[in-house]
């Protein structure tokens, strides 16, 4: 696994064939670098909406575009910015703690999110100025 303090792409196995279909598998330690405690998905988001706009103190996430396209922009506290375009259901992006991230979706996009923690409002850093100060 790459350095866990920076966002990175994850290629999930793509098993099958075009005549029968495919399955992709995410396994803890093999492809997902944390124990999954929460799963949620986002869908029918208008293309003009930018979601996210936050970081987490503790939560790690893997985001997958199950269908459609998702553009994810990440920023670390040191100012390092990366852009990821997810358009394949066999690829995801790892989001570490203290990583500001935004997502913009095609209207048909369905984003699957795997999170390392249960939802806790105090884990969110929603103010960009506070994020930069930390």
Question: Would you kindly provide a brief summary of this structure?
Answer:
Residues 9-133 form the Sugar 3,4-ketoisomerase QdtA cupin domain. This protein has one helix and twelve strands; from the N terminus they run ββββββββββββα.
Notable characteristics:
five-stranded antiparallel beta sheet; mainly beta; globular; 49% strand; Jelly Rolls
Task: Describe this protein's structure.
This protein is mainly beta and 134 residues long. The chain is built from one helix and twelve strands, in the order E-E-E-E-E-E-E-E-E-E-E-E-H. The strands form three sheets. The protein has a five-stranded antiparallel sheet with strand order 1-9-6-11-4, with no helix packed on it. It has a five-stranded antiparallel sheet with strand order 8-7-10-5-12. The protein has a two-stranded antiparallel sheet with strand order 2-3. Strand 7 (70-76) and strand 8 (81-86) form a beta hairpin. The longest helix has 6 residues, at 128-133. InterPro entries: QdtA_cupin_dom, RmlC-like_jellyroll, RmlC_Cupin_sf. This is FdtA/QdtA family cupin domain-containing protein.
